[in-house]
Amino acid sequence: MTDSPTPASHRGTAGYLRYPGLLARGQASSAVEVRRDGKRVDLVIGDGTRLNTLVPEIVVPLREALERYGRDPEVRVIVLCGGGAAFSAGGDLAMMESAVRQLGDPDDRDGTASIWRWIRREFGGVVRAIARSEAPVIAAVDGPAAGVGLAFALACDLIVASDRALLVPAFGRIGLVPEVGTSWALTRALGRAGAFARYLTGEPIAAAEALDLGLVQEVVPAAELGAAADRWAGLVQAQPEQALQLTKVLLRQAADSSWEHALVAEEFAEPQCFVSGDFADAIRTFPAALKDVERYAAG
């Protein structure tokens, strides 16, 4: 991966990269492969080099692709995966070291502004695009998903993992807080004390344990990860589109809602399904499906 030259106007007096320079790098050179097959879009981050560390050439094009395809009415499902035998090792340590040097320079006037902009607009932009995407986003995780890479996976609507996947919440080991939504995701999955314990140890969570904890929804042999992602993507595409999109919104809101608020949201959403062609078709075929259930119950 080669870095694109950064215009002098995007560098400070000490030569540090500013947010505009990082953005320009990502817009000039993409390390995200987009594969479109009908109503499905696969986004492949990196090629396995450096375990798909989140350099601008990955993060900026990924955000832009998620924003584009997430609002494309012709896209029904998005699959997010890493190139090679890794999902992503997380943030780029070289960029972090540069930020430390910059903050220690008494002549630098940027302070934490560029760091904040990068974290909010790009890292945060990726997870917000996943959450706001009308199409469900499936993470297919092989190998490590660490730090912000883990945050990207946890932001997805479901995760299918290979048996060699590792979820690595190692923020504390490098002196950082859980970021980009991981404090929210891990606390809801593990409880406050469980999330705090993971922060303290920073120990990787193997695929089988992640399944037991509810952090991933399926674990398969590495050679079968692509087929498993295909199966989940097929399930998404087989669902009535309008009801599925409403369900994604309802479930994400329910995580922060009271029971009463969730009930009211469902009451407003349900009538919207009644006017869809998918619902009308399902009602016509439901009696046959009910007979299948009755036969199953009868043994």
Describe this structure in words.
- Keywords: Lyase.
- Its EC number is 4.2.1.17.
- Helix content is 52%, strand content 13%.
- By secondary structure, it is of the alpha/beta class.
- The chain has 2 domains: 8-238, 2-enoyl-CoA Hydratase, Chain A, domain 1, CATH 3.90.226.10; 240-299, Lyase 2-enoyl-coa Hydratase, Chain  A, domain 2 (Orthogonal Bundle).
- Strands 1-2-3-4-6-9 form a 6-stranded mixed sheet, with helices on both faces.
- The chain is globular and about 75 Å long.
- It starts with 18 loop residues before the first helix and ends with a helix.
- Residues 1-15 have low confidence and may be disordered.
Summarize the structure.
The protein is α/β, with parallel strands linked by helices and 299 residues long. Helices cover 52% and strands 13% of the residues. It folds into two domains: 8-238, 2-enoyl-CoA Hydratase, Chain A, domain 1; 240-299, Lyase 2-enoyl-coa Hydratase, Chain  A, domain 2 (Orthogonal Bundle).
